[in-house]
Specification:
182 residues, alpha+beta, eight-stranded antiparallel beta sheet, elongated
Length: 182
C-alpha cells in the first residue's frame, strides 16, 4: 500500500470512531471483528488470525465510513442487515421455532415445517402476519409513542408504547380489563 492510501485509511478510521453514533452502525467492520473473535474455539488462535488479517480492518472501516454508512444514513436502511440470520427458539408450548430475519421482517417456522411471516410495511408503518395465503394487519405505528393494535375480534385499540400502555393492552388481551373499543 502506498503512503497516501495508508494516511487516508487512518484518517477515515479516526473519523469513523469519532462520529460513529451519527453516521451509521459500521456493520461490515463489526461483522468482520465478530467473525474474527469467534473464528475458532481458541482465543489465542483468533488473535493470530486477527494479526494475520489486520489489513482487512482498515478496509472494512473505510468501506463502512465512505459507502455503507452513507447509504444507511440517507436511506434509513442498513445494507448489511442481518437478513438470512436464523435463531432457534424454544416456545412456551415446548416446540422449537426457527426465526429467520428477512429484509421485510421475520419468517417463523415451527418444528412441523409450518411457516408464518411477520412483514413490516415501511410506507404504511404496519406489521402484518401472513400464513397459508392469508394476511392480517397486526398493528400500525401512528407515531413514535403510539400504535393502533388490531384485535382478533375485528376491533382495534390505541396503545401507548410504554410500560403502562403495554400492560393495559395485555390486560385487554387476557380479558382482565374493560376497554372501550373504537
Amino acid at each position: 500500500m502506498n503512503n497516501r492510501f495508508s494516511k487516508l485509511c487512518i484518517v477515515a478510521m479516526i473519523c469513523a470512531v469519532s462520529f460513529n453514533s451519527c453516521i451509521g452502525s459500521f456493520s461490515l467492520f463489526n461483522k468482520f471483528a465478530q467473525w474474527n473473535a469467534n473464528a475458532t474455539d481458541s482465543k489465542y488462535l483468533n488473535a493470530v488470525i486477527g494479526w494475520l488479517l489486520c489489513w482487512v480492518y482498515p478496509i472494512c472501516g473505510t468501506v463502512d465510513f465512505l459507502v455503507l454508512n452513507t447509504i444507511e444514513f440517507w436511506s434509513g436502511e442498513n445494507p448489511l442487515a442481518d437478513a438470512g440470520k436464523v435463531q432457534n427458539v424454544m416456545g412456551s408450548d415446548g416446540h422449537m421455532y426457527a426465526i429467520t430475519t428477512t429484509k421485510k421482517g421475520y419468517e417463523v417456522k415451527n418444528d412441523k415445517g409450518e411457516l408464518v411471516n411477520f412483514v413490516y410495511d415501511k410506507n404504511n408503518k404496519t406489521w402484518t402476519v401472513e400464513s397459508n395465503g392469508m394476511s392480517q394487519v397486526l398493528l400500525q405505528l401512528t407515531d413514535d409513542q403510539n400504535a393502533k393494535v388490531y384485535l382478533q375480534n375485528g376491533k382495534s385499540m390505541n396503545v401507548k408504547l410504554n410500560n403502562e400502555g403495554v400492560t393495559a393492552f395485555r390486560q385487554v388481551v387476557e380479558g382482565n380489563a374493560f376497554y372501550a373499543f373504537r
